[in-house]
Amino acid sequence: MDTTNSTIKGKAYEYACVLALQDLVSPIREIEIVENESLEIAKARYDNDIAEQDKSDMLLSARSGIQAIIEMEPKIIEDDNDRLTISLQPDSVATKLGDIRDVLIIRRELSWEIGVSVKHNHAALKHSRLSARLDFGNVWFGVPCSQTYFNEIAPIFAKLKTLKDNGELWRNLPDKEASVYVPLLNAFVSEFNRLNGSGSITADLVKYLLGSNGKDYYKLIHNNNHTATIMPFNLFGTLNQTTDATQPIIIIPEIELPTRIIEMTFKENSKTTVILTMNNGWSISFRIHNASSKVETSLKFDIQLQSKPEDIFYINREW
Hints:
The protein is built from eight helices and twelve strands. By secondary structure, it is an alpha+beta fold. It has two domains: 3-123 and 213-255 and 312-318, no CATH class; 129-206 and 257-307, no CATH class. It has a seven-stranded mixed β-sheet with strand order 1-2-3-4-6-7-12, with helices on one face. Strands 5-11-10-9-8 form a five-stranded antiparallel β-sheet. Helix 1 (3-25) packs across helix 2 (37-48), helix 1 (3-25) packs across helix 3 (52-72) and helix 6 (147-165) packs antiparallel against helix 7. It is globular.
């Protein structure tokens, strides 16, 4: 799926989640849906850009995923007189504040809220980029990259600029792994290890990769295999609260975060992926790839949770 189509379906799925919440909760308590630009965009994508079968699938998926979240969050349907507020957040809160929650579920009278990060058919943590000028160290964990790193990557991106100016396509570069991916990843790994050696970056890196910004959240993934995947990220112990009368049906443990980076190395027999290994059972993969058929002057990472502590679990619900 191309990036544009993926973005459209992601926005449409956000609106499907709003509809599912409204459908499941409105028989129990009053619902307020915040009318903002984010809601307008998501609704327009759902109404105008999605085939009828996809709409039906998204609604079934969203309903099954939201039902699972309700089983972990009884405050959503607690029998009370206050209003439940549903709000979609703009993308800018993720880019500027690191808050990746798309859907907020709020009870203002209790000063209580939970957030849901909505994904359509992918489970990536991030899609971060590398370029000739982008300082990944400063953006990811607040430690600037060295001039040595920028000197190492300059010839690679200069070559890409020439190819881009000539309108070259990636498929016409038979040596792209050897001439672009491997040297760029070598420079990236060397700089990452250099920055890690200069001081503790683990906490800020995890905060960036998980997109928490100090907030716990659920990740809800629509899968094309007729399942919805729900992953709780209970990093700070605020999820899974009981009510005066009800315990959650599903109990979520608090996650033990990594405190130390062990190593970052190439994945065995791979020229496109490096693996970051940390303590407490965490490892994260960084796969570099071109996000367009045409050569561009930046490359994108597909960053995935490779292994995780037992405290992070996921639920698959069929729809």
